[in-house]
């Protein structure tokens, strides 16, 4: 039995695991990813896009353009059957990006290759044992990895979560769907239909957005989605899909040669704790829900960006282990909110007349400006507000990507976050000698309003402490005694 040591082992190389690996690598942490697939190919049509806040965090690392160029830009944010136009939101990404998970993973994997992150492919974590100093992680090839921390990014059936004994509380399925990438012998009835059982659809996998409308390709793989009459479980078969299509369309159109078959439901569960000592959870390992609004992949990537810099500081010895407690405190409520809004959407999307009446009334309410901005900001992740206490409206929220002027000339604030280091943005004059080894002091000038989605304009502070994840940790004046306290809390005690 061979044993290899790493600072962090990540179980699972999906979007969450890869984003976390990138964050840790940027912070000079020795990390390895264990991924059961031999390559980054995603079979099937899983998550279909990226929301505004996810594009912002990718922009904070300088890679957002890669994703935008590969995807389809459009007004795709919605709640149940109500769609929003967010083109007036104060963000560079005031739209949704249509991009299948397969392409998203390919782009993230290419980025990890550039960062030289090691990925152990074709292997799985089969178990682990943790003690006071680290975790022994057992792999399917009888190898053992010794790590200071293990992070489970291994999906809704997470072995890491189960082995750690973390409760996965929530609600069982009330509806389920079959989804397949298939071929048809006959020309089908293209598009979406609703009946007494729910929503069904047949369309091409590839599409473009033209003038705000989805235009599907005339060629390429076909994607079919059927709402089942009764809640199903387990891996579906082609025969099951054929029977379900016949029940809906009167024919299965000669369905054959499936590339992938899967089943998803509205099961909603959340880990009661995102951490057990040296073992942490992120992404679907920490929360599962109905895919209404396309929030799952985005939620996982943002988990990774919240956790990465904190775990790096603990591993590198600049912050005490207590900093990891803020990961649970900040991300668990965000996950709970997503479960709440997806369950609400599920209730509204049911085909019965009472749900239709509720859906119509909600659609009317969401047509009002304040309601539209509030719910749309929630759906695209721009409203996230970590509870960091009372103070300026910016505190705990995402920092706007301001165009500031420094001694080197004009620059975007997100550009200054490409190295994943915190920033003290000073719009007056100050010094930061004790923390200069880990915090960037940016003396700058800025003219213009500070605007937040759903809140509007907010007063401009004299100085802002910005965490590596782009959230505001402190505001005030450079001489305020609360600044050293905030620096110590988030980025460790001052250097000698």
TrEMBL record:
Family matches, as InterPro entries: FAD-bd, FAD/NAD-bd_sf, RIFMO-like
Q: Which GO terms describe its molecular function?
A: FAD binding; oxidoreductase activity, acting on paired donors, with incorporation or reduction of molecular oxygen, NAD(P)H as one donor, and incorporation of one atom of oxygen
The answer, when asked if Oxidoreductase is one of the entry's keywords, is yes
**Segments forming domain FAD-binding:** 7-342
Keywords (A to Z) from UniProt = FAD, Flavoprotein, Monooxygenase, Oxidoreductase
What SUPFAM superfamilies does UniProt report for this protein, alphabetically?
A: FAD/NAD(P)-binding domain (SSF51905)
Needed cofactors: FAD
Recorded hits in PANTHER family, A to Z, give: BINDING MONOOXYGENASE, PUTATIVE (JCVI)-RELATED, TRK SYSTEM POTASSIUM UPTAKE PROTEIN
Q: Which NCBIfam families match?
A: PRK06834.1
The molecule here is called Monooxygenase FAD-binding protein
